[in-house]
Specification:
By secondary structure, the chain is of the alpha+beta class. A hairpin with a 2-residue loop joins β26 and β27. α1 packs antiparallel against α2 and α21 runs parallel beside α22. The protein has 24 helices and 29 strands. It folds into 6 domains: 148 residues, Beta-Lactamase (2-Layer Sandwich); 96 residues, PAS domain (Beta-Lactamase); 109 residues, Beta-Lactamase (2-Layer Sandwich); 101 residues, Beta-Lactamase, CATH 3.30.450; 98 residues; 177 residues, Histidine kinase-like ATPase, C-terminal domain (Heat Shock Protein 90), CATH 3.30.565.
């Protein structure tokens, strides 16, 4: 504490002696004593004549109680001694037997003085010092205080006014130096003993004092912060004294509320201006009082355009009466309401809104005087709910089996078709998927289906579903779909279609296709009748020739015994030609075989050779040579192999076989029909391009990846682009006498084997047809 502030407390003590409470006087005196160097504590004890003791009267710090029986306590001897010696050392007083001596001993006060004073009522000032070297100054303090009491002046009226002020106050001179303070200021400082007056004042208090005196006007509401409190100061000029009275009040609660209100106001304004929801105020009849800027984003109106406008005028005609009636009734009864309705945008289209309304009531009558609404656009949500409702209706009405299940395979929901097909009653708990599938299908679904559906969104397979309580099931086509929930977890839906009818239809369709293919083969045989007759006439003519020669040799056998060997050779040749004719007939019977298709491992070489044999005579008649190439063996080469009477032209492979190829599966007769169709088309194309001229056709076998390709390359005129697009369309043909079913049927046959039939683009003359089949590698 500064010496100047100690002077202020001394001045305050003297002023309080004229008009002030005993507690304020004691506090000011103790604070003044503590301003002396080395003083650690100061206590004021007033004399209690009835009790004959020195006691604390509520001002300043207090000493602990004495020892012994309080009813026998007495400081009379000490009072008499102090009336003669008004300054006693504490060490001397501690040794006595008075009540105060015991209190000093219990307080642990050893160094200091006891100063007797009589401001109004007799009392004693107990001054404790830190070290004995400061004791020499205490008699001077006692002398100063006795002198001031004996010569204290009467306080003027203005000083008395300062002391009567309930607010903490100071008087400052023109240099902004405090010259007096009141008891309220003393009490304010008492909470923080180490504080000085300048800590409380605004930082620019000196400038404020100067401005106040120069301008002769009061300056108010100047804020300062001290010890976690907010103080508001007033500077009031006193020209007659050339001083300024400075008063303050604790405005901590007020300022904090204002700041919290300002923060809340800014936050509310920030929320109101930036929220996507529309915040609006309305009169009880629904007219807009105000609206947030979101009105422009949601409705196309600025808040200024909505003020005074009735909300009813924006509602959909079907929602006007119902919404207003519900709002008025619910707000009057409950004070709040949530509405869903349609409202018109400025552009003319309608939006779905959800509005939460709350009524503001009049304090005394309880009537609703204002309505506050928070509205949001839920158009997307309403549309999504409508779409979900429609999808749910589709799922319920779907004839396919729809099952929803979790990641563990437990069914969570099924549609009515699934309940009927699987035998699940309405009140029955849903089973797990493992109960409806055989172990092999369920294991495949868990091992492949789950991950496949998560990676690609869907996974498909075929399986057999087993209804509850049934011994046999039915084949279904399964599509497993993966869905990701809002929490990141996956759940699945399973769409199953009963394939029983499809299998029956496919079986019937295959039967019709086989009959149509058989009819096409009969037609082909009819078109190849001359070639077939040639194939059979050749061995029959040879048989007749060999038989006639053998008969002649038999007639001369007795004359020429050596003719027996010639007869035997003739019979061998007759047998060879008969076997050849039988092979031709067997090949024709196999080609014309009627029945269901027989899918088995194919001998491609045999199929190719028989197809070429069937087309050999027609190729020879049109001067066309058929070459067979096999790229599976790099060293394959070919030689011409014609018999004497064979008019057909084709070259065939040597001893290298196609049996080393990976397995190819299909029906040999149907594949042979495809090759015959392609070869005959190629022969006709060559003849159309160059009549009466020799030409060639190449039938090539290639292995490309996991496919076996059978290519037929002709030297015909080729096909225009528009014809290529329609080439495999049923009943489309470029021939004047064609039916347009050959290529369409051939493609259907190849696709039935898992392959296909296409025409390949080529820069050379002619056309290249490629029939490919899948290879099954070991």
């Amino acid at each position: 504490m500064t010496s100047h502030q100690g002077q202020l407390y001394l001045d305050l003590w003297l002023r309080l002696l004229q008009q002030g409470s005993a507690a304020d006087q004691a506090a000011a005196l103790c604070r003044y004593a503590q301003s002396w160097p080395g003083v650690s504590q100061a206590y004021w004890l007033s004399w209690q004549p009835h009790e004959q003791i020195y006691a604390h009267d509520g001002g300043g710090p207090a000493l602990p109680p004495g020892q012994g029986d309080p009813l026998k306590a007495s400081d009379a001897l000490l009072f008499e001694q102090l009336s003669r010696e008004w300054c006693l050392p504490l060490a001397q007083v501690r040794q006595g037997q008075t009540w105060l001596s015991g209190r000093l001993r219990r307080a642990g006060l050893a160094e200091g003085s006891l100063i007797a004073l009589t401001p109004k009522t007799p009392g004693v000032l107990v001054v404790a010092i830190e070290t004995a070297q400061h004791a020499a100054a205490l008699p001077a303090m006692a002398t100063l205080l006795q002198t001031l009491l004996a010569n204290r002046p009467e306080q003027p009226a203005d000083v008395m006014l300062l002391q009567c002020d309930p607010l903490p106050g100071l008087r400052m001179n023109s240099l902004a130096t405090p010259v007096a303070m009141n008891a309220a200021m003393q009490q304010l400082l008492a909470h923080h003993p180490g504080s000085v007056i300048s800590d409380l004042l605004p930082v620019n208090y000196a400038q404020l004092v100067t401005a106040c005196l120069n301008q002769s006007r009061a300056i108010g509401e100047v804020e300062s912060t001290w010890a976690g409190k907010f103080l508001l100061w007033q500077f009031i000029p006193e020209p007659s004294l050339d001083a300024v009275m400075v008063r303050c009040r604790d405005a901590t609660t007020e300022i904090r509320r204002k700041r919290e209100a300002a923060v809340a106001s800014r936050l509310y304004r920030l929320i109101t201006e930036n929220t996507t929801d529309l915040i609006s105020r309305h009169t009880p009849d629904g007219r807009f009082l105000d609206a947030s800027p979101a009105s422009w984003t949601l409705l196309g109106y600025w808040p200024e355009a909505l003020r005074g406008r009735s909300a009813q005028s924006l509602l959909h005609p079907r929602d006007r009466g119902r919404s207003l009636f519900q709002a008025a009734e619910a707000l009057a009864r409950d004070g709040y309401l949530t509405l869903t309705y349609r409202i018109r945008h400025r552009d003319g289209h309608y939006l779905w809104f959800e509005t939460a309304c709350r009524g503001i009531r009049e304090t005394y009558t309880g009537d609703v005087v204002e309505i506050v609404c928070i509205s949001r656009d839920i158009t997307a949500r309403v549309r999504a709910e409508e779409e979900n409702r429609r999808l749910a209706e589709v799922v319920r009405a779907n004839t396919d089996l729809v099952l929803f299940l979790d990641s563990q395979g437990q069914l969570t929901m099924v549609n009515p078709s699934a309940r009927r097909a699987l035998g699940i009653r309405g009140e029955q708990d849903l089973p797990s998927l493992a109960e409806l599938l055989n172990p092999e299908d369920f294991h495949r679904l868990r091992q492949q289906g789950w991950s496949g559906a998560i990676q690609r969104g869907a996974w498909a397979t075929e399986a057999r579903l087993m209804p509850l309580g049934a011994e046999t099931g039915f084949v279904v086509s399964l599509v497993l779909l993966a869905h990701r929930g809002a929490g990141g977890q996956y759940y699945f839906s399973l769409v199953a279609r009963d394939m029983t009818e499809r299998e029956l239809r496919e079986t019937e369709q295959r039967r019709h296709q086989d009959e149509l293919a058989h009819t096409a083969r009969l037609i082909t045989m009819g078109e190849l009748a001359s070639g077939i007759a040639h194939e059979i006439n050749q061995p029959l003519a040879a048989v007749m020739n060999y038989a006639g020669a053998s008969q002649r040799y038999l007639k001369t056998l007795h004359e020429q015994p050596e003719n027996a060997a010639r007869v035997a050779e003739g019979l061998r040749l007759i047998a060879d030609q008969a076997r050849h004719a039988a092979a031709v007939i067997s090949r024709l019977r196999g080609f014309l075989r009627k029945g269901s298709r027989n899918i088995q491992r194919l001998d491609i070489e045999t199929v190719v050779r028989e197809a070429m044999d069937l087309c050999a005579w027609e190729a020879s008649r049109h001067q066309v040579t058929i070459y067979f190439e096999n790229s599976h063996f790099e060293n394959s080469h070919f030689e011409k192999n014609r018999s004497e009477n064979d008019d057909a032209g084709f070259e065939e492979p040597q001893t290298h076989s196609l049996s080393a190829l990976p397995p190819v599966y299909g029906d040999a007769v149907l594949l042979e029909q495809v090759l015959v169709n392609l070869l005959r088309n190629a022969i006709e194309a060559n003849w159309e391009q160059a009549p009466q001229q020799a030409s060639r056709i190449v039938l090539r076998v290639d292995v490309e990846g996991d496919r076996l390709c059978l290519r037929v390359v002709d030297q015909g005129p080729g096909l225009p682009d528009e014809a290529r697009e329609k080439l495999f369309t049923p009943f489309y043909t470029s021939k004047h006498d064609g039916l347009g079913l050959g290529l369409s049927m051939s493609r259907t046959i190849a696709e039935g084997f898992g392959g296909g039939l296409d025409i390949e683009a080529s820069d050379q003359r002619g056309a290249t047809f490629c029939c490919w089949l899948p290879l099954r590698r070991e």
